[in-house]
Design a protein that fits this description.
The complex is a heterodimer of chains A (251) and B (243). The radius of gyration of chain A is 19 Å and the shape is globular. Chain A has one domain. In chain A, 79% of the residues lie in helices and 0% in strands. Chain A is built from 15 helices and no strands. Chain B has 243 residues and is α/β, with parallel strands linked by helices. Chain B has a domain of 165 residues: Rossmann fold (3-Layer(aba) Sandwich). Chain B contains nine helices and ten strands. The radius of gyration of chain B is 18 Å and the shape is globular. Chain B starts with a strand and ends with a helix. Classes of the chains: A mainly alpha (251), B alpha/beta (243). The interface between A and B is medium-sized, with 27 and 33 residues. Chain B: Keywords: ATP-binding, Nucleotide-binding, Transport. Chain B: It comes from Hyphomonas pacifica. Chain B: It holds the Pfam family ABC_tran. Chain B: This is Multidrug ABC transporter ATPase. Chain B: Belongs to the ABC transporter superfamily.
Chain lengths: 251, 243
Amino acid sequence: MNYLRQQLGSFVPVFRREIGAYYSTPMAYVFLAVFLLALGMFTWEASGFFDTGTADLSPFFVWHPWLYMIFLPALAMRLWADETSAGTDELLLSLPLGMPGLVLGKLLAAWSVAGVCLLLTFPMWLTVNFLGKPDNAAIILTYFVSFLMAGSYLSVGAAVSALTRSQVTAFVISVVIAFIFTAAGWPLVLSGVKSIFGAGFADLVAQFSFLSHFEAAQRGVLEFRAVLFFLGFMALWTILNGLWASRHRLG
Amino acid sequence: MLDIQKLVKSFGTKRAVQGLSFTVKKGTVLGFLGPNGAGKSTTMRMISGVLEPDSGDALIAGKSIVSQRREAQAALGYLPEGAPLYDDMTPPEFLAFMAAARSLPRSERKSAIERAIADSRISTVCGQRIGSLSKGYRRRVGLAGAILHDPPVLLLDEPTDGLDPNQKRAVRALIARMAPTKAIVISTHTLTEVPAMCTRAIVIDRGRIVADETPEGLRQLSSDGTLEGAFTKLTDQAEAESA
């Protein structure tokens, strides 16, 4: 118990510091505005939200993985790279803080901004409820899995950010990794893999794909393995994040 | 208070610190001198737990920085080289973060922050973001962060760099006021600071100690009776020996 408190005691101060960094600068507001604008544009223009003729949010949720893939690395890129380039990592590492709390504090601060972003999409939900009778339980469930997926993208971005002092490098590498995990479930990629490596291998690739895990949730089906997948994925990258951030102590 | 035991650190093939040992007692203000690249900041980083030493240890108030890192760090106030700070915060926000990170009891935080602000004389800039402050004020905000929890051991890397003469005098007075109850290590390459602040001086070169004297004793090592002469003689000599 005491050990846990030592390791995680750093969570609250670090979380509050990161939240402050997002909201005391234009960063969070710009992110929220642009992300919501892009999501709205894709939902209405590309998916034809009003032309589907059914009162559901699938033309809206379908864009989540793709927009997360681009936008969330931008939210996560500063978490560690900024500390390294400003030299504040030296200050942070000289404080009696446990690494697990540090890593989680930073990740959850970014994740909470993503959460606010999802909450601010409520006009979409109001619209479908005004126009018809959607399955609201299914919508809440899809939001929940989407939130977990956002955390997964952020965990990649945060971990990669610990590897470099350049935010741009962190962003680019994170987007590439995020693309691989997203598009592993893309029909185009899957059929290509299937024709080269066979159906068995294509199935294996799809196991690691965000699109396939999000697909069931989009239909309003809660797949336990999808939830487990995203949680496990986050845990893996968070552990990598801790290891990579600890390397700063080696010089 | 502070016991450095055979610290060693290499970066690749470069041996930055080669078995450094010294102790600092309560009441001592130690000037830690050396040319650029001598290993001063690397040593400071190892003592503060930012860098892991390849071998050796540093005991801060009896706690090992290697095996009891957090306990040792809790007893230490550290001002890193260049006073890195979070630019988007105001000084009170920064100090509140430091107080929370150091787990000061909630009831004591407010008074600790007020005391640190008064001691480091930054009350006039409390409403400004740290990013907009001048170099001298930044340094003093960093100093306020280091003394916030009233630690028994203080490690200050270039605390007076970038300060004007009045500010320097204020920092010296603050250090003199804290000196009797603390062990203080000040890294500097401004030699005039040494007799003004320090009761003892260690000169290092290429990761080794080349002199450990009082400022007066150091002066007598030179041919012309100045600290500068002694510094040049000691560090040149080391260069000649290794050549």
